[in-house]
Amino acid sequence: MHYRCVKCKKTYALASNQWKCGCQGLLHLEYDKQPLDFRATAVSRRHSLWKYIDALPFDKADVWESVTLGEGGTPLVSIGPNVYAKADYYMPTLSFKDRGAVTLIAMAKKLGVERVVADSSGNAGTAIAAYAARAGIACNVFVPASTSDKKIKQIEAHGAIIHKIPGTREDTAAAAIAMVEATNLFYASHIYNPLFWEGTKTYFYEVFEELGGVMPEAFIVPVGNGTLLIGAYIAFQELLAWGLIDKLPKILAVQAERCAPILKAFARGETEVAAVENEGTLAEGIAIAAPARGAEILAAVRATGGDIIGVSEEGIAAARTSLAAQGIYVEITSAANYAGYLDYLQKYPKLAEKVVVLPLCGAGIKSN
Question: What would the mean pLDDT of 322-341 be, rounded to a whole number?
Fold first, then answer.
């Protein structure tokens, strides 16, 4: 098992504490995986993402057993004809980021890490802080000063040291990286460390299993830094390689119109993503003006024959109200996903006849 640079192909051992290649290329994770038997996982008594252990970078009996909080196994909820919402706000810290946080922190514990550094707009920081506490690892979390007070209090409750950074989300990341480079601490980044995607990919295993071994026509996927979207593409490629699907589901990505660098690059047919100004959006969780893995996100969407759409502030607010009227109270960023689905129906009316799945990424109590 090792990291490999996507640019120069150099490899690094996990124990090297490397988060980026010397050539400044980003890293992917490579290791031997076993095809999953979804007939067995469907009847497993383990109701968590760890029932997919054969396709995760751990042994069956490993350090993860002392770190897990039972994450995964979230239900699909019907919210209309042919459309299902996967309720990932049922997670221990009330967001889908628990999937990636548990795999990342479990590996950090296996490597003997004593302190981690993370940066986040809120949910990833909360998840990293919670699992670090569970693993007995000290934690520093950098957040934008504008982050919801409720999210900050949740991070602090797990004993993490909070660093509130004025300015943009990119300023927050820069401050965290400066600490990592000055101290050589483990960078528990949901953006740079590919161990995080090993958890987020299980979202798509679960959907495949819950739909009886069939993939939906499309997944609505919110995209800021791309942690769920890249997990999707990894899962799709694995299922295809294992002969369990014969085509890739479409990734229909969603960005907020007021901070949409990936949408703009996609619409122009570009392969790289240029930074934009964050004009301010209710959907703080996807308000990433300069996504580090923008090129990978564009490539993944195009490989699935997918699309990227922007949603308005009014659409986000209306979607949250609409979901609440169905008994589903989500944080504002999650409402952007449903808003995106509704806008995609306008763009592609025949989508109403196809099975589509969207995520409910975070609980409503996380938003002010």
Answer: 96
What's the Cα-to-Cα distance from 121 to each of 61, 234, 264, 291, rounded to whole Å?
Answer: 33, 24, 22, 13
Helices 123-135 & 149-157, crossing angle to 10 degrees? 10
Q: How far is CA 212 from CA 42, 79, 216, in A?
A: 9, 19, 11
Domains and CATH numbers, the chain: 1-32 (no CATH), 76-95+195-366 (3.40.50.1100), 98-187 (3.40.50.1100)
Q: How many residues does the chain have?
A: 368
Helix, strand or coil for residue 78?
Answer: strand
| Cα dihedral 301, 305, 306, 307 sign | positive
* Mean pLDDT, the chain, whole residue set: 96
Beta strand pairing status for 161-165 and 218-222?
Answer: unpaired
- What is the CA angle 268-271-274, rounded to 5? 75
| Mean pLDDT to the nearest integer, 310-325 | 97
Q: Where are the alpha helices (DSSP H) in the chain?
A: 38-42, 98-110, 123-135, 149-157, 169-183, 195-200, 202-210, 227-241, 261-267, 294-303, 313-324, 332-347
Residues 6+ apart with CB under 8 A from 285: 121, 122, 123, 222, 224, 331, 333, 334, 361, 362
Give me 221's structure tokens: 């996927």
Residue 174, both tokens = 């820069």
The DSSP letter of residue 349 is G
- pTM of the entire predicted model: 0.95
Rounded-to-integer distance, Cα 201 and Cα 209, Å: 13
Sheet holding 115-119, edge to edge: 161-165, 138-144, 115-119, 186-187
Contact 337, 252 (CB under 8 A): no
